[in-house]
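Kindly draft a polypeptide, keeping tokens residue-aligned:

***
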Amino acid sequence: MYIVTAEEMYEIDRYAIEHGGIDGRILMENAGRAIAERLIKQEAGSQAAAVIVGSGNNGGDGFVIARYLLQSGFRVKVYQLASNQKITGDALYHKQLFINQQGLIEDNVDAEMLQDDLPNYHFVVDAILGIGVKGEIRSSIRPFIDLLNKSDKKVISVDIPSGLPANEGIDKDIAVKADFTYVVESPKQSLFTEWGAPYYGEWEVVPIGIPEQAYSNHSSLKRWGKQAFVSTFPKRDTYSHKGSHGKGAVIGGQRTMPGSVTLTASAALKSGAGLLTIATVEDNIPIIASKCTEAMYQVLEDRDGVITKNHTDLFKAFDGLAIGMGMGRDEVTANFSQKLIQALDMPMVIDADGLHHLKPILNTVSERNHPIIITPHFGEMAMLTGYTIDEMKRKPFSIAKEFADQYQLYVVLKGKFTIITSPYGDQIVNDTGNAGLAKGGTGDVLSGILLAMIMQNQSTMAALGNACYIHGLSAEMRVKSGENTEIDLLASDVIDGLSNVFRTLSDV
């Protein structure tokens, strides 16, 4: 599923019209009809709907929705916020169709009138403003958005809640807080940002017949889901052996933090790594071995439990490394990490303290044959880039892309919406997971899954997308099954849940 900016959506529509031969009125009909059909089922117990329209294509969709609701027996009235002169083109065509069916339109509306009328309706369709919003909302529209937000009526937005920018990085003024949004054809960027997502409420994408070719030149951002996982995750060969699925190493865990590498290693093994070695200080090994009996061990030199100078050639025989979990930020430990990163050209997942070790040598890691994957949360990404956390949240897609391109590495920017970016500009979003993952150790688990996945026979982007998908899905399934709640879910529960995830997905 593609995720688009406003500009990309305009180009995709244009392609469908100019090269696909689909008239704009048909696209508008398809959108309005598809939404209306869902509304008729969703609101089967209702009898009356108010449809509030503006002057653009979003308003045109509203006229189509109103017509189909009317035909299905709903009592419908359209409240037109724009003057008649501003209803033009495809929207005017569909307005006239609605009128031809004796549809009621109130075209001289003020907020006080609408407030008086709203009690007469069971739900409200918001088709006021579309994806082109930038900056301050017009004073003539603001009272209506404010009224909808204060109303106790269910509000269903068309494509995007009115007033909300479609793109990241645009200042939000005032926007409708929808209960449900029917997204037309493709989700917009703001749906996958922390500042935009709450306005959408629940949401569903409604296809309208745009040809697949329209996306090939106009969008490189996708949502990663079940279909992507099933189509890319490699099947195990009947004659495969432990060496077929990767020999990995997890490097970290000073004496005071043995749990982090335990979680990473356990997750890697549970996710399919063939062989796994934990490189840590000697005092940690009995603790870790009692929890992760399938791993092997490499003792790292230490001083008072802090990892010190070690030989990088200890790790040359591995297929992939995960570095940084529970490692600490002592200078001598950082020096060891930096030598590993610079000396070994193999797939690496760098997380936690390893990100702090990486920062001083970022300019030296771009010329590699194998990928470096970093897994920062917003705070760590701010540390690496110099942006503030607020700036990171405002435009996460562009900042991640800029950083991945500059240093030629893969960025797994963790959050409610995890944004995965390649050095070549490709981006995917994973939105599985729940608030139970907001707990120490879950990032260590993700690093282990990532390590296992990059050692399997799949592209790097597919490996990263699949790892994030099953990590979040495990948390969702643990809560949905009643084994955990979002409060008591632990990182180790996420590991335990992976078996059920793989079992479920293998049946698809």
